[in-house]
From TrEMBL:
Keywords: Hydrolase, Magnesium. It is an enzyme of class 3 (hydrolase). The gene is ymfB. It comes from the Bacteria. The keyword Magnesium applies. Monomer. Belongs to the Nudix hydrolase family. NudJ subfamily. This is Phosphatase NudJ. Its EC number is 3.6.1.-.
Length: 148
């Protein structure tokens, strides 16, 4: 068996002191996460986070920064995730757009509300990415090269 990590992207979006999270159905029950998902074949990390944010929230996302790269192992699933988290801004919202299967809703939540939901976070990366954003971690997108 060949081991490989699951490469994922996530958007850390803050507006008026609230962060955008998705409420989603998972095998572990209803969980909260940043707009996030897996990198698809031949897709750049930037394109992936734009796509996932739109599909899960109906918000158009413009990435401006890399917030961090996170290596997390889920012992329960026996999987390793390599997450690239991006910060940026919302460029619009399509209220008529249907959200991805499994997504219940997108919510703008305060940090206190997010902390109160911590037991229902999809992973410990949810709060870690927000904490890093709040700590001012913003790296240039030029750190990431998509070579075809």
């Amino acid at each position: 068996m060949i081991w490989k990590p699951h490469v994922t992207v996530a958007a850390v979006l803050e507006r008026d002191g609230k962060f955008l999270l998705v409420e989603e159905e998972t095998n572990e029950g209803i969980r909260f996460n940043q707009p996030a998902g897996h990198l698809e074949c031949r897709e750049s990390l930037i394109d992936a986070v734009i796509r996932e944010t739109l599909e899960e929230t109906a918000y158009s996302f413009i990435p401006r920064y890399l917030v961090g790269v996170y290596n997390w192992r889920s012992e329960a699933k026996d999987m390793t995730y390599l997450r690239f988290a991006f910060g940026g801004e919302v460029a619009g919202h399509d209220a008529q757009r249907e959200l991805d299967q499994g997504i219940i809703a997108a919510h703008w939540l305060t940090l206190d509300e997010i902390r109160a939901l911590e037991s229902r976070h999809r992973s410990p990366l949810v709060l870690r990415c927000i904490d890093d954003w709040r700590a001012g971690k913003r790296y240039p997108l030029e750190l990431i090269a998509h070579v075809e």
